[in-house]
Amino acid sequence: MPVSFNSKYVEKFLEKDALTNIQNEVTRADKMLREKTGEGNDFLGWVTLPEDYDKEEFEQIKKSAEKIRKDSEVLVVVGIGGSYLGARAVIEFIKSQNYNLKRNGAPEIYFAGNTISSDSLTDLLEIIGDRDFSVNIISKSGTTTEPAVAFRVLRELLVNKYGKAEAAKRIYATTDKAKGTLKNLSDIEGYQTFVVPDDVGGRYSVLTAVGLLPIAVAGIDIDALMKGAYDAMENLNDSNIENNDCYKYAAVRNLLYRSGKKIEMMVSYEPSYTMMNEWFKQLFGESEGKDGKGIFPASAIFSTDLHSMGQYIQEGERHLFETVVVFNKSRTELLIKEEAENFDGLNFLKGKSLSYVNRKAFEGTVLAHTDGNVPNVILEVEKADEYNLGYLIYFLEKACAVSGYILGVNPFNQPGVEAYKKNMFALLGKPGYEAQKEELEARLNQA
Ligand code: PA5
Q1: Which of 78, 116, 144, 286 to mutate to test the pocket of ligand 1 (most atoms within 8 A of CB)?
Q2: SS3 letters across 3-59
Q3: From atom 8 of ligand 1, which residue's Cα is the shortest distance away?
Q4: Whose CA is nearest to atom 15 of ligand 1?
Q5: DSSP string, 243-256
Q6: Does 369 contact ligand 1 (Cβ within 6 A)?
Q7: Which residue has the CA at smallest separation from atom 3 of ligand 1?
Q8: 140 lines ligand 1 (CB under 6 A)
Q9: Cα gap 193→195, rounded to integer Å
Q10: Could you tell me how far CA 328 lies from the centroid of its own chain?
Q11: Residue 310: how many CA atoms within 13 Å on its side-chain side?
C-alpha cells in the first residue's frame, strides 16, 4: 500500500482489546459516510471526487495553466484557509519550499489574501514589480474579507497595467458555479471561471480546481495526483480496522484522545512537508474542534524542532501523541565523504547518505519519545511523489471524516469561524452590524 499504518510504537499505550472494542464505532462511522446519514452529509462530494470529477474542467485547468505559464512571470493565488493551503502544501512538497527560487522557467507563485497585513501585501506588490502576472482568485463563498481585500488591490494593478479587457484575461476565478459576488463579477467582466463543487467544503477541496490550477501552473503532474487519490478511494473501503489502515488511524487517535492525549503533533523529517502540516491542521482542527471536544492538531519538523520543542515533547506534560509521516524513499541521495584530518569526527559516517542519517534520527527519536510516554503513530509513505501524495491526501481526508463521526461531531461544518468575523465587521462599521458595534466598543474601552 502507498500509505501504511505502523502500530509498533503505539500498541503499548492502548488497552488490550481496545481496537476490537472500538470496531463497532468505526463500523457505525463508516456506515454514516457510506449511506450519507451522518451530520454534514451534504458535504460528501470529496468521497467520490477522484472518480467523478468534471473531466472537461480538468482539461480546461491544464489549458489555463499552460497559458499562465506562457504569459506570466508571476501567478498570485488569492485565497484563505481551504482556498489556499492545499495548493501551497502540494507545490512546496512536490517541488520545493524554495520553488520560487528554482522554478525552471515556470511562473513564480505567491499566495495572497490569507492575511490582512498591509506589510505583506505591499511586499508582494514590490516583488511583482513591473513583471507580467496573473491572478487566481479562489473563494467558494465569494465574500471572504481577506481575499476580497487583496483581490481589489491586485485587480486595480492588473487593470492599470493591461487595461480592462486584457486584465480580464489574466484573472481566473475559482468559486461557486452559480451564485455569489465573485461569480457575478466574473460573469460581468468575463473572467475564466472554475467551480468549487457545492458538496465539497473548503478544507476538502485541494483536489478540485481550488488546488489543481495553481498546482498545474507549478508544473506538477495533476493526473498522477488524482490517480493516487483514486487508488486510495478504491483501497480504503473496508470497514474492518484490520484491513483498513485509514480507519485504524482514525480509531487509534480517538483511543489516545480518550486516554488523555489531547494533542496530536503531525511530524515529518522533511522540511518540504511544513505546509502539508498546515493543511492537516486546518483539516482536522476545523473538522473536529467543536462542541467542547476535539484533539488539538499541532505540528513539527524534525530534527529541526527537536532543538526547540524536543525538551517539552520528551519531558513536559504528558498530553501529547505524535503522528510521524515517514517517506521510505527520499528523492535524492547526498553522501558523506571521508576527510583525512577528521577534525569534526564524522569519518564514522563516511559513505553514508544523509537520508540514512535522517532515518537513524527518526529511529532514535521514536524510541526516546515512546520511552518518555509519547505514543507514536507512524504513517509510512512509499515515495515523495505526486501519486503517493494524492493517496496520502485522500487517506487523511477520509480518516478525518471517520474520526470526526467517532468523536461525535459534524466533521463538515465550521460555525466557530464566524465569531471573529461578526465582531470585525461590527467594529469596522459594516452596514447591518450597527447594534453590535456600540456594545463591542464599550467592552474594548472598559478599564
Ligand atoms: O474550510 C473552510 O471552509 C474555510 O477554511 C474556507 O476555506 C475559508 O474560510 C475560505 O472560504 P471561501 O473559500 O468561501 O473564501
Answers
A1: 144
A2: EEEECCCCHHHCCCCHHHHHHHHHHHHHHHHHCCCCCCHHHCHHHHHHHHCCHHHHH
A3: 81
A4: 139
A5: G-HHHHHHHHHHHH
A6: no
A7: 202
A8: yes
A9: 7
A10: 21
A11: 14
Measured from the Cα of 204, ligand 1's closest atom is: 1
Does the Cβ of 81 fall within 6 Å of ligand 1?
yes
Distance separating the N- and C-terminal Cα atoms of the chain: 60
Q: Give residue 154's identity as a one-letter amino acid code.
A: L
Report the candidate in 9, 14, 5 with the shortest Cα–Cα distance to residue 370. Answer: 9
113 lines ligand 1 (CB under 6 A): no
CA of 139 to the centre of ligand 1 (A): 7
Question: Backbone phi, then psi, for 132, in 5-degree steps?
Answer: -70, 135
Q: Torsion over CA of 280, 286, 288 and 293, rounded to 10 degrees? A: 120
Q: Tell me the CA–centroid distance for residue 202 and ligand 1, in Å.
A: 5
Determine the Cα–Cα distance for residues 47 and 26; give it in Å rounded to an integer. 17
| Predicted confidence pLDDT, tens digits, the chain (447 residues) | 999 999 999 999 999 999 999 999 999 999 999 999 999 999 999 999 999 999 999 999 999 999 999 999 999 999 999 999 999 999 999 999 999 999 888 999 999 999 999 999 999 999 999 999 999 999 999 899 999 999 999 999 999 999 999 999 999 999 999 999 999 999 999 999 999 999 999 999 999 999 999 999 999 999 999 999 999 999 999 999 999 999 999 999 999 999 999 999 999 999 999 999 999 999 999 999 999 999 999 999 999 999 999 999 999 999 999 999 999 988 899 999 999 999 999 999 999 999 999 999 999 999 999 999 999 999 999 999 999 999 999 999 999 999 999 999 999 999 999 999 999 999 999 999 998 999 999 999 997
Find the helix or strand (DSSP H, E) in which 312 lies: helix 310-315
So which residues are the catalytic ones?
286, 307, 421
Indicate the pairing of strand 74-78 with strand 376-383.
unpaired
**Whose CA is closest to 193, among 208, 181, 182, 206?**
182
The three grid cell numbers given for residue 104, joined into one nine-digit string: 525552471
What are the angstrom distances between the C-alpha of 392 and each of 207, 209, 383? 12, 19, 11
Q: Quote the ligand 1 centre to 286 CA distance (angstroms).
A: 10
CA of 111 relative to ligand 1 center, distance in Å: 15
To test the ligand 1 pocket, which listed residue (140, 278, 279) has its Cβ within 8 A of the most ligand atoms? 140
